[in-house]
Design brief:
Belongs to the LysR transcriptional regulatory family. This is LysR substrate-binding domain-containing protein. With 91 residues, the protein is an all-alpha fold. The chain is built from three helices and no strands.
């Protein structure tokens, strides 16, 4: 499927705002659009179609023997967010 149009961006926020404004369609992950779909701002137009990709959220930090308490707390929080709100997310 070839895309045509004048708006192209690699910024999810810009693309999401454009879709909300009715400027075009947006292909993206559930993590990006779930709230807008649940609240009726966006609707799924191709329910039987999905991207064939295996993507994820990656947290990157410097290699070290010890992880700071703040970093450990953030990692734990992110895992909780994934588990509770993103069923496709894995540790």
């Amino acid at each position: 499927m070839a895309a045509r149009g004048t708006l192209r961006s690699n910024d999810n926020g810009t693309l999401l705002e454009a879709a909300r404004a009715g400027i075009g369609i947006l292909g993206g992950g559930e993590w990006l659009m779930a709230r807008d779909m649940a609240e009726g701002r966006l609707v799924r137009i191709l329910p039987d179609w999905a991207f064939d990709v295996d993507s994820g959220i990656y947290l990157v930090r410097p290699s070290a023997q010890l992880v700071s308490a703040r970093t450990a707390a953030f990692l734990a929080w992110m895992r909780e967010q994934c588990r509770d709100h993103m069923p496709w997310c894995r540790d």
